Structure formats: C-alpha cells, structure tokens
Amino acid sequence: MLWYASERTPSVHTVRTRSREAFYRAAVLATFALGTATGDLTATAGLGYLGSVVLFAAAVCVPALAHRFGALNAVAAFWTTYVITRPLGASLTDWMALGRARGGLGFGLAPVTLAGTVAIVGFVGYMAVSQGDRGAHAAT
What we know:
The protein is mostly helical. It has helices at residues 2-7, 18-68, 74-97, 109-130. It has a domain at 2-9 and 19-105. Helix content is 74%, strand content 0%. Helix 2 (18-68) crosses helix 3.
C-alpha cells in the first residue's frame, strides 16, 4: 500500500497534511469506481440486485466481527468495511431505482437519488450539530 509506505499509517484520523489528504482522496475515488463496478458485476452475473445487497450486507459483517473478536485492527477493519459499503450502496440503489423487468423495485432514479441526498444531508447535519463523531480521536 503506497499510502502506508509513504506516510507510515493509513489511518483516517491522521489525515492532516496535503500528502495524506491526497492518499485519502485517491483511496475514496478508487473505492467508488471499483465498488460500483463490483456491485454491478455481481448483480448482472446472476445474483441480481437484491442478491448483491444480501451478499455485501453479509460481507460487511466479516470485518466487524473480526475486529470485535480481536482478529483485525481498527484501521484494517475500517478500510475493509469502507470498501465493502460501496458495492452495497450501489446494489441497494440500483435495486430500489431500476424497473421490475431488470430486477428492481421500480421507484425510479430521481426519487431514490432525492431520498439518498436528504438522508445524507440529514446525517451530516446531525453529526455537525451533535458532534457525535468526536470520539477518542478528537484530541489527536
């Protein structure tokens, strides 16, 4: 991992320099592109969109349990889970938006996008006001 080799840590709690921010942004861009493609691949390769949602929802539990029981450190658990959430989100969105003929619920792209946008803005706003994301790492 280039980020670790250069910065000696891939922790998001240490993204305080331009170099680390560049690595972080590159990681986010790569996971978005590859995650969306992975979700589409599993859905069109036979699992369908709902099947892909179930697959990736179960996969998210693996690093969470591994971290909970001491088999995976916090940084590795975070990045593993982060990577898996992208195909999960893409599959879930496709399942809700696409028509029934394509294996979806048929809500349409605009309503699903609007609902997702409202949810994200709501969660970010809540976290900004409550400062619920300020945990043990806030002082570091």
